[in-house]
Amino acid sequence: MAPRSFWKGYLKLSLVTCPVAMVPATTDNEKVKFHTLNRKTGNRVVSQYVDAVSGKAVDDDEQVKGYQRGEDEYVMLEDAEIDAVGLESTRTIDIEMFVPRDSIDWIWYDKPHYLTPDDPVGEEAFSVIRDAMEATGQVGISRLVMYRRERAVMIEPRDRGIILWTLRYGDEVRDHEAYFGDIKKDKTDSKLMPLVQKLIDERMKPWDPKMVDDPVQDRLLEIIAAKKKGKKRPAKSKAEPEPATNVINIMDALKKSIASEGKSKKS
């Protein structure tokens, strides 16, 4: 069963408007979560904010946001002041512009959400906007208040629905040239390329979501199940990783790799 929507509002393009619902496209509900307990009593341990100087607990209504401007010096901002600088409407995805789908690099993508029509009457308007983006290869750019912050969002067609991606802020993405700029631009040895391509071909497989399963999660669930039954499951000792060795001859290493790939396939 599809999860309930966590946001409802409107998708708007000029004078065309339709009601929509949104739900995060990813979830961590199935992940193993732990609480911190008091080992002696078995009771949960709760956290609270305390004054860094006096050590006394601070009530919720006495807590305020602070921007540091010097050592032990802060500018205080009330929640109402922070909320006042946000968008007037937090319930309308007004598409301000369109850009080519391939012009936004993946590194700007933050969180994906599923956007669906929320009213049978509005399905036609929703479908027209979706299909027009698909036909032109464009994605929409808008702004929206989500997770208590105003964010740029990208909307793109996906099957019969729309994916809404929150986009990272401009100061969150580091310039790759600062890290890749010093890597030498020498041409790769033409004799090595076919060997590496052969290795790639040998390892090609169709995508399968099982490729990103979490083995640690599975082992944790095994331990929890054993403890529920009163059994003590011994922890597996981790094998020591083999020490890395410097590759002296890349050609020899590639040939050995291809030979080992062939043997593993035969077996």
TrEMBL record:
Domain Ku, chain residue ranges per copy: 55-184
Domain of life: Bacteria
SMART domains for the chain: Ku78 (SM00559)
Keywords on record: DNA damage, DNA recombination, DNA repair, DNA-binding
Sequence intervals crossing the membrane: none
Chain positions covered by the region annotation Disordered: 227-246
Compositionally biased tracts (Basic residues): 227-236
Keyword Zinc-finger: no
Keyword DNA damage recorded: yes
GO terms under biological process: DNA recombination; double-strand break repair via nonhomologous end joining
GO molecular function: double-stranded DNA binding
Family per record: Belongs to the prokaryotic Ku family.
Subunit structure: Homodimer. Interacts with LigD.
UniProt function note: With LigD forms a non-homologous end joining (NHEJ) DNA repair enzyme, which repairs dsDNA breaks with reduced fidelity. Binds linear dsDNA with 5'- and 3'- overhangs but not closed circular dsDNA nor ssDNA. Recruits and stimulates the ligase activity of LigD.
Protein name: Non-homologous end joining protein Ku
Source organism (scientific name): Phyllobacterium endophyticum
Phylogenetic classification of the source organism: Bacteria, Pseudomonadati, Pseudomonadota, Alphaproteobacteria, Hyphomicrobiales
